[in-house]
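#struct-pred

JT: dropping the chains for the assembly here, can someone run the whole complex?
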Amino acid sequence: MALSHLDALEAEAIHIFREVAATCARPVMLYSIGKDSSVLLHTAIKAFAPGPVPFPLLHVDTGWKFREMIAFRDRMAAEHGLDLKVHMNPDGVRDGVGPFSHGSSVHTHVMKTLGLRQALDAGRYDAAFGGARRDEEKSRAKERIFSFRDRSHGWDPKNQRPEMWRVFNTRVADGESMRVFPLSNWTELDVWQYIQREAIPIVPLYFAKPRPVVERDGMLIMADDERMALRPGESIEQRVVRFRTLGCYPLTGAIESEAATLDDIIAEMQVSRTSERQGRLIDRDEAGSMEKKKREGYF
Amino acid sequence: MAETTLLRFITCGSVDDGKSTLIGRLLHETRQIFEDQADALARDSRKHGTTGDDVDYALLVDGLEAEREQGITIDVAYRFFATPARKFIVADTPGHEQYTRNMATGASTADLAIVLVDARKGVLTQTRRHSFIASLLGIRHVILAVNKIDLMGFDQAVFDDIVSDYAEVAGHLGLERVEAIPLSARYGDNIAERSARLSWYGGPTLIELLERAPTANRAGAAPFRLPIQYVSRPNLDFRGFAGTVASGEIAAGDPVTVAKSGVSTKVSRIVGPDGDQERATAGQAVTLVLADEVEASRGNMLCRPTERPEVADQFAAHIVWMDEQPMLPGRSYWLRTETDQVPATVTDLKHRQDVNTFAHEAAKSLELNEIGLCNLSTQAPVAFDPYADNRVTGAFVLIDRMTNATAGAGMILHPLRRAANVHWQAITVDAEARAALKHQKPAVLWFTGLSGSGKSTIANLLEKKLHAQGRHTFILDGDNVRHGLNRDLGFTEVDRVENIRRVAEVARLMAEAGLLVIVSFISPFRAERRMARELMPEGQFVEIFVDTPFDVCAERDPKGLYAKALRGEIANFTGLDSPYEPPENAELRLDTQEDSADALAERLEAWLSARGYC
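RK: done, full complex below.
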């Protein structure tokens, strides 16, 4: 009897978690609080039950996450007794880097990419789990489950290790590392179906409700705190919206939606005609922009 | 939405067969292409496309910036689509450079292969090659997609000819199930809907064929195998063996055996993703708790007492080579199965197989993208099944020990009976006893360094000193050995590896005889020096790096070799056109520019004496 597709994907993720725990010296899980991170955490807990998750979680904070995300993060860490480490790039904090003052490119590079590199170097981690999926974006489709990174965290798409069967090559030299993606073969729909089947808690921002938003550059930006300064002609309106992905609030577009339950979201997804990354400003900066960020060490 | 099953497949075809177009079309027909992606696609089609005003679906799947610019596909990419009946994962591999390596990667996890044939060209050499690689990787089910049938006027005779040509290939490769379908990926004929223009074809559409295909997971009926991946010991009350069931099934209460030790016990609990469960079947990631405290760690395997895997340290396997550095028999690699890892060498390359003609050819090494039949020897026994019986437990990769690159992929054919039947002679007078009689501790003193660095001079002086003290010694010198034992070997990389292997084996026998063995060999490669080190018991191998720079050696040139080499009269000369890899962890480093040979020999003698060797 063949496993259902969700059981097969879950088993694959569990296998990958265990493989790292068995062969890497200092693993860490990148926890970004979104729905994929929620699934990642859920499968990690299953992989090691009845024992605890044998590695810490790392959140690279930018100072601009939705407030509800931070509250959710702290609640999850407390409920599951997780070893959660939070890092914010001190150079960026000192220089007051933010998306409104410096633009999305600089903000993302300094607070996310550089912040991540600092945290990984400081922890001397040799394996870092991430929730990326191959269906998200074209360059992700070519990335391995165990993705080798050189000493400066760079990804070389032309020089990836062949990955065959379930035989993973987890060997790295001192200072080198792997990024590991247990959800590589999941699609966005799989993630939602799994969240529903397993009743996994997620940040409420995924569900529609009236929220204060500003229409800017064709996107609906939620005014999450007082740092959101209005430009001439802009106004804050209450609209019924939700988010398909979560990140820094000034860079994450909301969609107008009535989907207030998981059933609604899945139904909406199946008729949806836009990809989830469409709401992300950073991917549109220039063509091939995700590939470029990844070469520099972005997740 | 009801849960469905998952099918993984690979598409194979040459550059212009329309492979990317077919995948793009499958994504389009199953509504996986979103509006923003479609907009980008239309934009890109005008910029880079090759289809005029039509949307170029190939651009949808050619992901990396470099690929879009050059119109090629670099690496294996995975695509996803779903129908109400099934989820699909497609491995998309490029059709030219690195083809064998990439296709083998994609095929390793595939249940079936779609082999694309251009209706205008018919069955080509490439078609045979793709089918061969698919069958080598264990794929038994092929969909023969005759594409671009629109360009042949939707002619049934063209299709029938190709189908009958392919039947011969399929028969030769032992494919169990071949389903042929005429289609046009560009226009969508027979993809999701039966084409009116192909009314003579009465069969299912491509998507229907994919929906109905059995998953290759016949593993359910195979014997139970659980490669132990992780031993879970969160507290004193719990000790479980975690892993993914490779094949078969097991229930709580069933007897199990640890493959490598043969120790048997019972399964007392099965912990699954949702807590305790009664049974575990192929593909599930579980943790087994056993009734007794048995010794088993990662790399071992659990099975039923009556259906055991092979446990051997020598076996035959097909190897697909994937690294720029060639595979050299005698060189030591890490061999990694799903959960086990041991040093291994290829002891014999029986033949190389031509992927186009399937012919067997004699070969001394395997280059990138070549396939060979090899005998392997591992440093410790491995538990496995023949790949033909089990694609999970019969597979392994070889890892370069220097770079950690995944250098080769292997599919095991069978154990070599010598491993099972030739046992070590139990020897009662052992190395220690023989050495004790000589009042010394045996050792292999391995001198490495460039030609003319002073190895032989220092080695000779050292031997004289040891001999004067009444120690039993022997010198194995590079030049001397090449006059006798290794007279059949030249100076290519392959021969240099074999040269060192033989010398290391001889040195080991001599050390077992209780001697202080002095080996004086250029031995330029770290991998071979490590192999020699691993042959000896811990502490018996002493690596001595005679560190004299190339310029100084060339200046001294005691045998006139450098002068000749610099004139281009000697090929593969170490330090010149063949590399020397200096030791990273030598026990001793001798600097011949600072001290005289005599002083260095004295220092060595003192070092050995301080450690009880003499």
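JT: nice. The beta strands of chain A are 27-30, 57-60, 84-87, 127-129, 146-149, 177-180, 209-216, 219-222, 237-242, 253-256. Helices of chain A lie at 5-23, 35-48, 67-80, 90-94, 99-123, 188-198, 262-271, 289-295.
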